[in-house]
Amino acid sequence: MDLDKTDRALLLALQKDGRASIANLAEAVSLTETPCARRLKRLEAEGYIDSYRTLLSRTALGLGVLAFAYVRFGVHARELSDRFEREIQAIPRVVSCHNVSGSADYLLQVVARDMDDYGVFMRDVLRALPGVTSVESMFSMREVKRDVGLPLL
């Protein structure tokens, strides 16, 4: 189903504030509460809304390091990549993992308390994962733009 102007406005309002009440959402998209609630339920049912969540502060949680790790495999066997992907799901400090094209096989986004903590994680966890032959890390010096939601093109 195509999204109309009101659906798009509702989705944008939710991306800005996932805890907004139906009353506030209705006001933001110029609807009354009942039609707004019906639209929201329909958007959820049709899969436009994956989930609701809260973004936590890395700083408040003492996670001062944000690293991007390029992971490379020496052997590209399906069973190795399947096992790697299963194991990476269970590692909380890996906040995202993408199978990518180019010189690396995976791109991970990893958080750590400090550089020492990251170094121990690299040595004891990341390099020990199945299939991993090399890891190249880059560190965020400053976050310029945080996940602000998807554009509605």
TrEMBL record:
Superkingdom of origin organism: Bacteria
Annotated InterPro entries: ArsR-like_HTH, AsnC-type_HTH_dom, Dimeric_a/b-barrel, Tscrpt_reg_AsnC-like, Tscrpt_reg_AsnC/Lrp_C, WH-like_DNA-bd_sf, WH_DNA-bd_sf
Cellular component, GO annotation: cytosol
Gene3D superfamilies per UniProt: 3.30.70.920, Winged helix-like DNA-binding domain superfamily/Winged helix DNA-binding domain
Residue ranges constituting the HTH asnC-type domain according to the UniProt record: 3-64
Keywords: DNA-binding, Transcription, Transcription regulation
Entry GO MF terms: sequence-specific DNA binding
Residue ranges of the TM segments: none
One Pfam family linked to the record: AsnC_trans_reg
GO BP terms, alphabetized: regulation of DNA-templated transcription; response to amino acid
Keyword DNA-binding: yes
PANTHER family: LEUCINE-RESPONSIVE REGULATORY PROTEIN, TRANSCRIPTIONAL REGULATOR AZLB
Listed name of the protein: AsnC family transcriptional regulator
Organism: Paraburkholderia steynii
